[in-house]
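Reviewers asked in the last cycle whether our approach scales beyond single polypeptides. To address this, we selected a multi-component target totalling 444 residues and predicted its structure end to end. The input consisted of the following lines:
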Amino acid sequence: MKVLFYYLIFPGFLFTAVAGMLASWVDRKVTARVQWRQGPPWYQNFADFVKLLGKEIIIPKQNKWIFLISPLLGLASVSIVATLLGRTLMNPSESFLGDLIAEIYLLTIPAIAVILGASASSNPLASVGASREIKLVLSYELPFVLAIVITILKSGGLIRINDIIGYQMANGSILNSVSGAIAFIVVILCIQAKLGFVPFDMSEADQELMGGACIEYSGAPLAIFKLTRQMLLVVLPIFLISLFWAYSPNIFWFILKYVILLVIIILIKNTNPRVRIDQATRFFWGPMAILASIGVILALIGY
Amino acid sequence: MNLKLKALTKSIWVFHFASSPCNNCDIEILDLLTPRHDVERFGIQLIGSIRHADVLLVTGIPNSKTGPKLKEVYAQAPKPCFVVAVGTCALGVGVFRGSYNNLGCVDDWIPVDAYVPGCPPKPEAMISGIVKLLNSLKQAK
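The resulting structure, written as structure tokens, was:
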């Protein structure tokens, strides 16, 4: 009963969904202000969500079940990550050994859900979107994991998020060291791709693929895909803060750090053009992976 | 007024169908997204896929090439989907009357919910057209 409450309501689904919609509103508002516009009102994402729930759902003839299940798959995995992270932050004794690794895996599932759904919809543009998403996942996972390895090395081989937070509270946050700063830069650019934001939004590219992977989705499944993205906008920055930037247990500082990280992500989104998929792969496997490897070496020799 | 309709009026996603216009109306439509008019204030967004659309915005006259495609796109839209005809060509036939490829205006192909006259209509006129469409929706309920 308690577990269900955690999963469905407080740190899990409902709380993260509401927070995600508000974070997504901050995204749209800051974007509008950067472009010298007024921007939507705060309830805009809620209105979008309710409206999409009320629309007709169009389902393709073949692959009915995969088409309908894949949005739920992404939503469920993001909710699990939110629950695990939230419980870890609130009550440290409830985490388990290796939850960091479990969360890295679970955070990949939303991308896989997008790939599955896009492939099941059998639309040529959606399949282009799916193939780009596959390439993007292959590209950013390498530097992302390398950057997290830096945290593990710095904290002396800890793979429990709770222990990593405890280490940072005792010895200062990992961001303060040279290798930690390198890892943070790499990981911010990686979550830009994980969130599907410009410059790495080529799987959804509105102007060339007409919505890309989500092109055939309408009504409630589309709403769930959007909601998954919005929840990731909450979960991923909190994941980064607890890995790299957690030196104070104060809730006020925590929220401030979250907002700073969110605004950094949004500003990167708004000041860059979309890159091609081959450029993105080269960027992640080239400069980013090399930078992260240098960070690993620095962490090994103690910087 | 029920919640569904209220959410719909607060969040209109527009699919733009250009059925052989002269592009003047299209330029004016893009003006709606600029800082001066900024229709995102009202939750109006231009989207790329007809499956996401609430409003199908048509400019130009449907001819023998674009007319059947217009019908197909309208059939693909998830309901409720409203049609707005923008510009004199889409409303009547305008300057194309008597042309060899003239098969009638948008009305002859699909049911239209709102008309915005003008050649091209001002962005203010389009916002007023959308507001009138929303008001008629609220009154119908």
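Residues 51 and 78 of chain B are 6 Å apart (CA to CA). We regard this as preliminary and will revisit it once experimental data from Aim 1 are available.
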